[in-house]
Amino acid sequence: QREQWMRNITRCQKDHLSTKLISDKLPVDFVFSFTCLVCDHLLSDPVQSPCGHLFCRGCIIKYNHVLGPHCPGCNLPCAADDLSPPAKAFLSALHSLPLLCPQGECGEQVRLDSFKAHCLDHELGRHQGSRQPAELDGYLLANKGG
Amino acid sequence: QREQWMRNITRCQKDHLSTKLISDKLPVDFVFSFTCLVCDHLLSDPVQSPCGHLFCRGCIIKYNHVLGPHCPGCNLPCAADDLSPPAKAFLSALHSLPLLCPQGECGEQVRLDSFKAHCLDHELGRHQGSRQPAELDGYLLANKGG
Ligand SMILES: [Zn+2]
Ligand SMILES: [Zn+2]
Ligand SMILES: [Zn+2]
Ligand SMILES: [Zn+2]
Ligand SMILES: [Zn+2]
Ligand SMILES: [Zn+2]
Ligand SMILES: [Zn+2]
Ligand SMILES: [Zn+2]
Hints:
The structure is a homodimer of 146-residue chains.
Chain A: H1 2-10, H2 28-32, E1 46-48, E2 54-56, H3 57-67, H4 88-95, E3 98-100, E4 109-111, H5 112-123, H6 137-143
Antiparallel strand pairs in A: 1-2, 3-4
The complex binds zinc ion (8 copies).
């Protein structure tokens, strides 16, 4: 699969969040607009190409290194120097995106910009219920500067 | 063209806003997620199908009437009874979408939920500069309850 092949390049499986955490009531095209075109995860530290496509900063750098300076979405030229931060209106929609907490008994909807803190609280036993699902271990570790 | 043919069904050209008003610095997939899949305008009174696609309420009703109860985006079943209001996180991103005021000398970025009032102010001579471009006449008329 293209997806698996690409993730062998990016190796981000443990650091990025799945788009399946996004509330499944949100419109599909809206959810897609927050998805990295390289790794298919929820965008992490997003950057924008001149053609208007989005990727995690780490993903597009690795992609360009292996496959050359073009956009994974539309194949137009796209080198590291062409990348810019997305507009504030986009970032504020991203940061307020509601995620479903995957902790078994929790079920809370948490904004993306509060999600790490919420998950760490589970790990430290500050919420009801036990530890995080193992999938989140890498994500939380990265947050603790580990 | 499909686009022209569809707009002969919806007849919304004068009532809806062009997606070209959206700041062209925003990511293309993000802009697309605010576009009606029937008329290609900026969504007006959006409703969501069970498959997660979005349309102006008026557009999907006219579309279903002429072409039958299926989704214009993916062809899955979609009747008037299946439509629901989009989630709040989506609506708040839509309402805060920055539009570029098309009034010649203005050039301000205005949130979608302030846009009608801003344009009416131009028409009433409350801002610098003269009247609105003629394209907005129908849109403003609808707002005044005309
Ligand atoms: Zn990733
Ligand atoms: Zn990525
Ligand atoms: Zn592109
Ligand atoms: Zn939780
Ligand atoms: Zn329209
Ligand atoms: Zn429409
Ligand atoms: Zn659909
Ligand atoms: Zn203006």
